[in-house]
Structure formats: structure tokens, C-alpha cells
Amino acid sequence: MFLTYLRRELRNRRKQTAVVAIGLAVAIALVMVVSSVSAGVRDAQAAVLESVYGVGTDITVTQTAEPGEGGGFGPRRFDFGAEDGEATEDGTRQLAQERLTTTPGTTSFDAGTLDTVSGLENVSGAAATLELTSTSFSGEMPDLEQLGEGGGIAVAPRAGAGGGGQGGPSSFEIDQQTVTGIDPAAAAVGPLTTTEVADGRAFEASDAGQDVAVLDAVYAEQEEIGVGDTVSVGGSDVEVIGTVASTTGEGVETAANVYLPLDVAAALADLDAEVTTLYVQVDSSSNVEAVSEAIAAELPDATVSTQADLADGVSGSLSTASSLVSTLGTWLSVIVLLAAFGLAILFTVSGVNRRTRELGTLKALGWSQRRVVGQIAGESVAQGLIGGVAGVALGGLSVLAVNLSGITLSGSTGAQVALGGGRRMGQALPEGAGEAAAGGPAGFGGGAGGGLAGTVSDVVLQAPVSVWVVAAAVGLAVLGGLVAGVVGGQRAARLRPAEAFRSLA
Amino acid sequence: MYQIEKLTKTYTQGKRTVHALRDVSLRIEDGELLSIQGPTGGGKSTLLQALGGLDRPTSGSVVLDGKDLATMNDAGLTRVRARTVGFVFQNFNLIPTLTAQENVETALVPAGAAKADRARRAVAALESVGLGERADHLPGELSGGQQQRVAIARALVKDPTVLLADEPTGNLDEDTRDEIIDLLEGLWKEQGLTLVLVTHDSAVAARSPRRIRIAKGRVKELTGR
């Protein structure tokens, strides 16, 4: 009788059932989407961190450059003497220069710190890298001797390529590539743990000291460089032995454009026995904080970052999406959910009021209070269940739409101050970086240009729908129905049969 | 057997206090057919509700088979309504979404009867009121007289000892009214029920061996007991 009565009532009140179910369905779908997108953003953040720091890295150790310190800050000038380059017939000189320095904002430190950190308690693995930026200048400049007094010229890669000026035609390019030196024998921790070989081969222990390189597959494709080709890094040619692609997503760039054996990178950058980053793996997540403090104590000048610190340091649209989901999305879900619950309660109570005579009659027939309340609550829960199932379907479709739309979130990590944009960041280089000057040694002023450094990763948002999210969504809808049922049922319970009939008289 | 002593019922309706029953004392024997007449608002329905345990009196007692309904707890009253007393209402009070048979079955739900038993007894009750063929019809598909027959079948399906009918012919035309009264009279005779019939129709009341009148909450015997 319970189910028959319930079914007939819901069928009889189709409009009310539909309104309540739709209200709950929309709320549930929103909760599902917010929850799934939130999980997707979290995964994306993890992917960004993994693409930079690799899998299994619990702590990174870097050292921030002081202003004026060699590697990190300050102008990077390309100085040319009047006699540099080759003079051409049209009065210009062909100039080219390349330099390899530490990544902007960071500086190198003693490689011996790796042993110090490896020896700490609860450290299960550690690796060191040398993260560098290779900046190259090439192009035609006016012959300064012909312009007047002899002198030099200096160019800073403030931002841009190309330029023209009074002294004659000039045309030049400034390129940057990120270079990471890694220990070919250490593969357990570090940036290459989230990569797979796309072509050729990965480093082997025997590659130490060899002029060989592994390239990021995306970079290699952009630059049309293949295995067996040579690339110029810091003015030296190295042979490409393989390319690696990120395992965190298709088309996602890895931590650097070019990977070199650590000792080769150090030699090219003139940073022997120096490193810029330590990747530390801790034996248990509960020990991360303690190890972090121990490293900070051992290396007082170092910047010690845990995964949580690194996650906070992720910026870009990924960070915006994260805060949007966690604030606006959550509040919107709560508000819509409360509205849906309120709607369900309102309709249930109004239904009870409309059915005063019916419920009074059932009591007159000997139906217990519990049975009457159970019937009302059952109808309400059934409405919630319908809303929950519809909500899961709607939410599932919405999440599918989000996933199919291929929303790409960009997250960046690392130093925030750097010299002009590198090619891998895809920034358009504005005009006017280079100027021609008439005589004099002063040349082109170069200051530290503003720009974004660190590593930028694009991750396609994939919002996962877990069984728990589905269960929670249906549970919420049923809870909404139950709350409405209890409120409506309480109203029905207070109804005395005689009062019910009297109120209708 | 009912023994009613000094029954008083006062309730508020909006800002107004209604004295529905004033010190009513009455005895109703087992198997008796009693008609209660009186003007609208005189207290007829209130008395019927007190007899059926639908409402608690303000003071006094309503003793049914030795148990005072005035002091009985809710669970006890629910049991009395489920087993001992059947109700027939002026507006039939059928559940519009349930068929005639299912409506009759609702009276067997509190007793915990099995589904098959419920169906069998409901069909038998409908046949006893001449509606065996209409078991699958919804109330909206039945005439007023047929709906009241379904309501009577619902009241009697649990084999009560008391049948309380509140204006059972109030919404029916004359022919149908006579049919329903014939039916109730027949069932009363056949089953030995105690039948209390509230009516403002003198023609209906005239068929009862015993009649009382309630006006302004006070009872007056009309049949000279």
C-alpha cells in the first residue's frame, strides 16, 4: 500500500514532483560540477607541479638571487666591440653572442649540499639540477666605425627583437631557451620523472661528461630539431640523443627546453660544482615538515619549499580557476542547494495543507502518526531520489561538456621576476628593444626587463566524476527530500483528525 | 456499549470560543441504532468525533466497552479507530488517487493485514455494498452514491462493532439517500452493529428506533426513553 499510494500521489502531482525534482536536480548538478571541477583543478595543479618538480618530490631547495648578484638579477648585456663581427658591404656588421646563466631570480649554490641533504634523517632520495637560461643574440647592426667615433655597443634582451635606427639598418633576434642540467644516473627524483621518451633515448649514466642533450618534444617540434641534430647551448654544440614528452598531458611542455648532463651544463655555464635546485623525497608524508625544517637549519640561505608551498606558488589562470571554484562555486552551490531544499520543504508543507482532509481521514481509519509521517516523508524522499538521479545525469552531462570543451588552464611556478620573455612562453616580442645609436660607447641601455619567469605549463582541465561524488550528490538530494519530508511530516503529525475536519468545515 | 458522562467540549475558532458540548450524558447500548439530529453547529459532529476517539473532550468521560476514550493515550485511540470503530463521512473522504478497492484496503493497513488478505476482504466488502464490479475505478469515476458505498465498505471491512456516520446522505439526492439508508439499515441488522447516525434530515432520522437532538451543545431525547 505504501508504494502504491506513493506512486499514485507522485503521478497525481506531476507538476509539483517535477518542480521539486528539477530544483534538486539543478542544485545537485551544480554541486557535482563544482566538486568535479574543483578536483580537476587540484589535479591540474598537481600536474603543473609534477611537470616542474617531478613525481615523488616532497621538497625543493633553491636559493633566491640577491639583487646585483650575478645570476639572478641585473642586466644581461651583450657587449660588442667596434671590431666584433663581420662587416658587410652595406655598412652593417653581423653579430652573434650567446650566454648561459642561472634561471632569473635564482642563484647557484654548492653541489655538496646534495650530500648534506641526502644524509638527513627520513630523506629517502635526493637529486640536484642546474637550471639555466640560454640567451642568444644574433643579427645585423650598423657599422659603428662609419657612424662616427668608435665605440662599443651593448644590447640587453630587455624584450624584443628587431630594431632600426639612425646609423643604418639593423635587424637582430634575441632567443631564450631553458636548460636544465641533470645527473644522468639519478632518475628516481627530479623533473624527468614525469616524462617519457618520445624519440631516441633518455640519458644513461655513461652520458656524464658527454656533449649530448635531450630535448623537450614540444620544443623540438617547434624548432624542427630531431634526434641526431645538434643544438647550440651557451655557444657550444651538443648532439640531440632523444626527446621527452610530459606524461601529465598531451602537448604539455616539460620543465625545460633542453636537458644536459649536469657536469656538461655546469661547465658550459662556468658553474663547476654548483647546482640551483635540490629535489628531495621524504620517506613519509608525516615527516615532510620535519625534514623541511632540518634542511632549513642546515642551509640557512636556501629557500625550502614543500609541495604545499609550491601549490600556493602556482599562479596564472589555474590559480584563478582554483580560487573561483573554491569561493564562488562553493557559495553558489550552497545557495542553490538551500534554495532547492527550501523549495522542496515549501511544496511538501503546501501539499500536506492541501491534503488535510485526506490525512485526517487516514488517521480516522486508524493509521498511526508514524505511518502518516512515513508516507509523507516517503513521497518527499522519492521526489529527492528522482531529483538526485536527474541531477547526477545533468551533472554528468555538464562535467562531460566541461571536459569536452578542452578548457586549458595555465599555471606557472617558480621565480616571478625575470628578464624578457622567452620563446617558450610564447610572448610576442614588442618592437623597440633594439635601437641603433650614433656613435659613442654607450650603446643600448639594458635593464632587467619585466617578465614572467619560472615554468609555465598548460594543462587541459579534466574534471573527474568519482563514485563518491555521485553518491554524495544522490545523498544530498535524498537528504533534501528527507528534510522536506520530516518538516511536512511533522505538520501532518500535529494534525488531529477532528481538527482536520473542523478546519475544513 | 457507550457510557457518556458530563461530556463538555470547548474549542476556539479564530478569536471565538465555541461551546460545542455542554455536560452531555448519554448511554448507547450495543447493537443500537441511534440518530442524532439538530441544527448546524449544534454539536452533532463533535459528539460523533468524541464517540470515535477522533477528539478529546474538554471534560467528562466517553467509556466504550469499559475503556475511557477521554483519558486514553494516542496509541490507544489509534487502536480503537483501527479495530473497533468505523467512520462514514458526509463528503465520503475517499483518497482520489486510489481505486475503490485500494481505498477500502486503507482501512486494513493499520491491522497489518497481508496484501492478498487485504485484497480479498476489500473485494468482499465492495460486493457487500453492490460495487464488486467497480473495484478498479477511481473515486472520480464513481457517482456520489457509489462513492458513499465505497466509504461504507471501507468502514465495515475491518469488522468494527461501532459504525459512526456523519451526515452520510448529506450530499446525495433523495433516491440515492434512500439507497444508502437502506444499505446502512440492512448492514446494521445483519451485523449487529452499534450504528450512530448524525443527520439533519428528519426522513432519515425517522427510520431510527431511537433519536436524540443536540442544540447549543445540549442533548434532548426525542423518542421518550
From TrEMBL, chain A:
Domain ABC3 transporter permease C-terminal: 332-402
Cell compartments where the protein resides: Cell membrane
Record's keyword terms, sorted: Cell membrane, Membrane, Transmembrane, Transmembrane helix
Region listing for Disordered, in residue ranges: 64-90, 146-172
Transmembrane regions: 328-349, 380-402, 465-487
Membrane topology: Multi-pass membrane protein
Origin superkingdom: Bacteria
Pfam families from the UniProt entry: FtsX, MacB_PCD
Domain MacB-like periplasmic core: 17-297
Coiled coil spans: none
Family of the protein in this entry: Belongs to the ABC-4 integral membrane protein family.
Official protein name in the record: ABC transporter permease
UniProtKB/TrEMBL annotation, chain B:
Domain ABC transporter span(s) in chain numbering: 2-225
SMART domains named in the record: AAA (SM00382)
Database matches in PROSITE patterns: ABC_TRANSPORTER_1, ABC_TRANSPORTER_2
Keywords assigned: ATP-binding, Nucleotide-binding, Transport
Domain of life of the source: Bacteria
GO terms for MF: ATP binding
Protein name per Swiss-Prot or TrEMBL: ABC transporter ATP-binding protein
